[in-house]
Amino acid sequence: MRNSERTDIYTRVTNEIVAAIEAGAGEWRMPWHHDGSAITRPINAVSRKAYRGANILSLWIAAQANGYTSGLWASYRQWQSLGAQVRKGEHATTIVFWKISQRGEQTDDQDDSGGHVRMFARGYSVFNEAQVEGYVAPAIAVLSEEERVARAEEFFANLGIATIHGGNEAYYLPSKDRIHMPPFSQFKDQAAYYGTLFHEGLHATGAPHRCDRDLSGRFGSDRYAMEEVTAELGTAQLLAELGIAHHPRPDHAAYIASWLKVLKADARAIFTVASKAQAGVDWMHGQQPDLAQAA
To answer: Where do the Polyvalent protein metallopeptidase domain residues begin and end (predicted)?
Structure first.
């Protein structure tokens, strides 16, 4: 893949994300908000593995724009391997496949600095289950609300991050490595509480002894805006896995303009942010004794 083709992929995906954010800005609804149902977690129909990073966001946007009610995706050939056929005239959704270039392997993305291992991107076309014929999805076990809440509580407790309840503000305090949360009674519902709790938990993954992100950005700065997107994307992914809705928050109004500014200025910014969010989610999964980490 030539440099121009890679740039086109980054730009195309970023433009779709920017358009989705702008479309929902009036109601603070971002493309990563969802109702917590099983379909909100994009999974490959063949491997049954969850998609990762920026690809999750791309597939969420495509599903929202086209009204797809399934979270199953696969390439044209993969659907054929399952005995299904993509309907004529259906349009694919582009995701990015990252490949490792080993020493000595010649790729369009490799420089002349000695052939070190590096990553390069290739575009990959996938179709949703709603776009194919001849496929019957397996039944999905759905946990009760009580079971989902219990799982979320256990998941967060396993993180071992100090959390204090009290006051009227939710925030992560890096100097003390501590999360502060208002009492549960101050939230309108369970989804709002867990959305805020895991959002602050994602910020906490940026601590030096965890994922080591730069948390020094001041409100209004590009660095601060990108840390907020990192926490939002990670939270949306975790809540989708836990079956809990991720609703818009009023404070998004303060961030939307800065998010758009950064994304429009750098077509690769969303990929960097999504990668950091995925790293935070992976760290959280790594603290779970019994819950398998998504691949």
So the answer is: 151-275
